[in-house]
Amino acid sequence: MKQPWRFSIWSFLIIVATTFDVPLCRATGIAGHVPELLVTKECRKTLAYTDAGEITAVDVNDGRKDVGSYHLEFFTIDARSLLLPILLHTNMLLYVHTGRGTVNWLVKKRVVAVEVEPGDIYKLEQGTVFYIQSSADPTREKLRIHAIFDTVVVDDENTGLDFVEVFYSNVSDLVRGFDVEVLQMGLGVSPEVIQEIKSAVKPPPIIPSVAKNGTDSRNMDWREGILDAVFGKKALQVLDSKKKEKKVFNIIKRKPDVKNSHGRSTAVTYKDAKSLKGSSMGLFMVNLTRSSMMGPHWNPKATEIAIVVRGRGMVQVVSPCKPSGLGDDERSTMRFYVKEGDVFVVPRFHPMAQMSFENESFVFVGFSSNAGKNHPQFLAGRCTRAGSASGLCGVCGGRTKEIGNGDGEEKHEEESKREEERKKEERKREEEEEREKEEKRREEERKRREEREREEERKRREERKREEEERERKEEEERKREEEEERKREEEERERQEERKREEEERERKEEEERKREEEEREEEERERKEEEERKREEEEERKREEEERERQEERKREEEERERKEEEERKREEEEERKREEEERERKEEEERKRKRKRRRGREKKKREKKKMREKDKRKRRRGRG
């Protein structure tokens, strides 16, 4: 059972050794459809770049169309700088790579803060409003944070959404979106503050930190207004008076699951770090020393997304769909070179191996899509308490020596001795080659020294020649300078004479101008006096005309009043006569009415008498008839 294992390792080393210098932007195999397993640092998308820091991002996937891509962002914040408040749309798991600072978020009307350092991990839940402040010490490293979001990106080009907005929003944009009246009533601040927030120029997402003793509130700039609006009155002072939370989990300080002379490996789940509870992501860290390898293994439960944080190395991934080593099925093997800042992905069930180079270590930290115990399966090695296998190996001269597995050591003892003898011969050969190289180097150094001496002699001759030419040039320049000075003196004397002549002419001209000016002034005064007299005369005439006009107007007014009075009297007289006529007419009509009434009354009385006579006549007739 051991011989096939050794053969597979040797095959792996030979393949890797032939592909050391293959820098790729995205890992691709020879086959038709291969998942994009590698994104180099140069291929990151820049979301924001300012003098105070930058934000970059990548989307990686494991080739499963039903899952989509995983979104990672890299925050780089300079010392004494601030990442403005952000509202998370989904959970965010972060890892602090370098630098120190404070992560702050709002919980029940108070700002909670945790101080972070390299190796710290923390999870911020969706709906959290947070901001990050780097260390105030300018001598410290930049604060670099690697973050992954729980929600995967659906690869749909028709969505039309900026992928940053899928995961979080800038609080400044949210605040500026409301009307002035809504903000004033909702936040309880003055209209001036709201207007300054609305009208101010939008700042970048990362800015230099605001001093504690900031300017007067009347000079409050846009970012101060946003912090005030979101975190309450005098929010900038909260930066120095916020509540501190207990120390966060640090993966570097945690005891490794596997550790030996070839490196160490650490995996973190929600059982190790309480902050990971409720998250679908786990975290791991692998540190390989020089000429070491993480033996071939696969993860049966989770996809692994790794970020190279130090050094360089090689990664090989084998597709489980097509067995490697059988004719054309070699194309199912993907191998690529990675360096600091690169991101590579290994889908679950895909066997993989990572190897460092001889001259530097290889450190990568990553996230797994399952927060629980994943129990990676190694081709060889014993399982540890954390479910990992001690697959850390040493790579020496193209031969792999397994560390952490005591089986087969006696069988390989003779091979180890032969390997030692071969190494001694190689060292002797290398020493001989080194001596030859040293002699050759000395000979080349002697030739270069002689060449330098000849070159220096030539330069000295050229320098003497240049000095002689410089001396002659200076003498010629001195002679020309003296001639030029003499010419200048003559020219200056001529100019002084011309200047005196011009001054005399100028003086005479000024005297003439002064005389003319005085005459003009006298003429002007006389003209003004006449104009003044004429003006007064015209004013007097105008006043008289106005007086006469006023008298005529008063006369017309009196005549008009007299005429109106007479008309009024005539009108009153006519009205009186009219009233009398109406009164007489009324009396006449009343008299006629009385006469008509008397006539009608006499008619009625006459009719009554006639009726009475008729009734009496009828009565007499009836009496005669009865008699």
TrEMBL record:
<dbReference type="Pfam" id="PF00190">
    <property type="entry name" value="Cupin_1"/>
</dbReference>
<feature type="region of interest" description="Disordered">
    <location>
        <begin position="389"/>
        <end position="627"/>
    </location>
</feature>
<feature type="compositionally biased region" description="Basic and acidic residues">
    <location>
        <begin position="527"/>
        <end position="594"/>
    </location>
</feature>
<feature type="domain" description="Cupin type-1">
    <location>
        <begin position="249"/>
        <end position="390"/>
    </location>
</feature>
<feature type="compositionally biased region" description="Basic residues">
    <location>
        <begin position="595"/>
        <end position="627"/>
    </location>
</feature>
<feature type="compositionally biased region" description="Basic and acidic residues">
    <location>
        <begin position="437"/>
        <end position="519"/>
    </location>
</feature>
<keyword id="KW-0732">Signal</keyword>
<feature type="signal peptide">
    <location>
        <begin position="1"/>
        <end position="27"/>
    </location>
</feature>
<protein>
    <recommendedName>
        <fullName>Cupin type-1 domain-containing protein</fullName>
    </recommendedName>
</protein>
<dbReference type="InterPro" id="IPR050253">
    <property type="entry name" value="Seed_Storage-Functional"/>
</dbReference>
<dbReference type="InterPro" id="IPR006045">
    <property type="entry name" value="Cupin_1"/>
</dbReference>
<dbReference type="InterPro" id="IPR011051">
    <property type="entry name" value="RmlC_Cupin_sf"/>
</dbReference>
<feature type="compositionally biased region" description="Basic and acidic residues">
    <location>
        <begin position="399"/>
        <end position="430"/>
    </location>
</feature>
<dbReference type="InterPro" id="IPR014710">
    <property type="entry name" value="RmlC-like_jellyroll"/>
</dbReference>
